[in-house]
């Protein structure tokens, strides 16, 4: 494929990389994640005001830059390199596309400009705790089983037209503790006509309780969201619309963007490791001069570049998003694991940068994977293991791991 970038796309990467480098440093991440928001609000406002980052893929009529998912993916590759704690993924890659796709003209006009200028952050609250399944990445989300079921469990919406009352709980909501707006997936229509619909819930709505959870990756803050008689506005004008198809479409694009971010994480971990092995000595020479170490680093380089190519392709063709995400998550896991090994004992310390990259890779796979299920579902959607293989006795999904 032709992965050549335009001059504008190169400039987006360069400008963002320079800005993040100036705001980086050994204490930048601990200071950011220690705030009430879970990120640096001053830096976030600058990213929104000076670079227009949250509105990069939004239409110009809503104050966005009018770019595509490719530009947002390139930006996220740079935030992945820096392990930047920010609400960018939850707001710009998950919530904003759903509002743009399903919202009424009034809802889009009221919400998207505030998202574009960074004054409003948003989070997707999905019951069941499985973001990957709800987005259709690791399984079919059309039956609504991921949302808890219509008779009990999940989140229920009661009431007639217009404002509804929401009851239930969503666990592991990305940036859910600080978002100014929640997009809540809830069951409506009662048990006989149960369907899943998205509702808009302001962060200060009555009956809403949000608790920040302890997460493996502290740069990805998670929250438990509880709703008790909480008012919610249906997203969109069609009260009978089911959210599953919209979630699956948004999930494929979000997978491409997340794949680019994971590539940035893997590439930065590899670069830092290469620099480290040039200075760490064993037996009177730098360990980077040992042939075995060179071979390991060369294998990692090939793996990262292959994942980058897949991520760029998926940004242009979101149908390839889940497979690109699988390749990128695997590359990040293997590369960051090798980075810890090659750093030796210091790499195992909790605060070391190599360990932070490892936790980001592991946390992302827990949230959006696992890798073998991403590949298995992609094979199912492509019909690779259909009736022809069933007749030959090959189990459905065999070999896709």
Describe this structure in words.
Strands 1, 2, 3, 4, 5, 6 and 7 form a seven-stranded mixed β-sheet that branches. The protein has 401 residues and is an alpha+beta fold. Strand 8 and strand 9 (285-286) form a beta hairpin. The protein has three domains: 7-120, Acyl-CoA dehydrogenase/oxidase, N-terminal domain (Butyryl-Coa Dehydrogenase, subunit A, domain 1, Orthogonal Bundle); 123-242, Butyryl-CoA Dehydrogenase, subunit A, domain 2 (Beta Barrel), CATH 2.40.110.10; 261-369, Butyryl-CoA Dehydrogenase, subunit A, domain 3, CATH 1.20.140. It contains 13 helices and nine strands. This is Acyl-CoA/acyl-ACP dehydrogenase. Residues 257-382 form the Acyl-CoA dehydrogenase/oxidase C-terminal domain. Its cofactor is FAD.
Integer tally of domains: 3
Work out the helix count. Answer: 13
Largest sheet: 7 strands, mixed
Portion in beta strands: 5-15%
Overall shape = globular
Tell me how many strands there are: 9
Q: Percent helix among the residues?
A: 40-55%
Map the helices and strands.
Elements: H1 7-22, H2 28-33, H3 41-51, H4 69-81, H5 88-102, H6 105-116, E1 122-125, H7 131-134, E2 155-158, E3 164-174, E4 181-188, E5 195-202, E6 208-213, E7 222-234, H8 244-277, E8 281-282, E9 285-286, H9 291-316, H10 321-343, H11 353-368, H12 371-382, H13 387-391
Parallel strand pairs: 1-4
Antiparallel strand pairs: 2-3, 3-7, 4-5, 5-7, 6-7, 8-9
Helix pairs in contact: 1-4, 4-8, 4-9, 5-6, 5-8, 8-9, 8-10, 8-11, 9-10, 10-11, 10-12
In short:
The chain contains 13 helices and nine strands. The chain is of the alpha+beta class and 401 residues long.
């Amino acid at each position: 494929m032709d992965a050549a970038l335009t001059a504008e796309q190169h400039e987006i990467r360069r400008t963002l990389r320079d800005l993040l480098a100036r705001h980086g440093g050994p204490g930048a991440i601990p200071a950011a994640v220690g705030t009430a928001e879970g990120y640096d609000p001053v830096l976030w406002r600058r990213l929104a005001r000076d670079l227009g980052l949250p509105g990069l893929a939004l239409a110009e009529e809503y104050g966005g830059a009018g770019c595509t998912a490719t530009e947002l993916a390139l930006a996220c590759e740079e935030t992945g390199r820096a392990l930047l704690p920010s609400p960018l993924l939850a707001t710009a890659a998950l919530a904003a596309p759903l509002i743009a796709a399903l919202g009424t003209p009034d809802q889009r006009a009221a919400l998207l400009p505030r998202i574009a200028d960074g004054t409003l952050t948003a989070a997707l609250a999905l019951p069941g705790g499985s973001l990957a399944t709800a987005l259709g990445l690791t399984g079919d989300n059309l039956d609504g089983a991921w949302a808890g079921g219509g008779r009990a469990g999940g989140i229920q919406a009661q009431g007639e037209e217009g404002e509804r009352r929401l009851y239930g709980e969503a666990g592991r909501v990305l940036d859910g503790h600080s978002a100014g707006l929640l997009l809540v997936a809830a069951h409506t229509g009662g048990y006989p006509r149960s369907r899943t619909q998205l509702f808009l819930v302001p962060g200060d709505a009555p009956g809403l309780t949000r608790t920040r959870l302890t997460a493996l990756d502290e740069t990805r803050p998670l929250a438990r969201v509880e709703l008790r008689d909480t008012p919610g506005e249906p997203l969109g004008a069609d009260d009978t619309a089911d959210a599953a198809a919209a979630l699956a479409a948004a999930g494929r694009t979000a997978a491409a963007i997340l794949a680019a971010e994971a590539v940035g994480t893997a590439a930065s971990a590899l670069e830092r490791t290469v620099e480290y092995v040039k200075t760490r000595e064993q037996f009177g020479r730098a360990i980077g001069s040992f042939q075995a170490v060179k071979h390991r680093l060369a294998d990692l380089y090939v793996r990262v570049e292959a994942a980058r190519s897949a991520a760029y392709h998926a940004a242009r063709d979101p149908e390839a998003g889940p497979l690109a995400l699988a390749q990128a998550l695997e590359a990040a896991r293997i590369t960051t694991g090798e980075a810890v090994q090659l750093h030796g004992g210091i790499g195992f310390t909790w605060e070391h940068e190599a360990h932070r990259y490892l936790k980001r890779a592991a946390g992302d796979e827990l949230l959006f994977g696992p890798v073998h299920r991403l590949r298995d579902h992609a094979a199912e959607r492509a019909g690779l293991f259909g009736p022809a293989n069933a007749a030959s006795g090959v189990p459905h999904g065999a070999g896709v791991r």
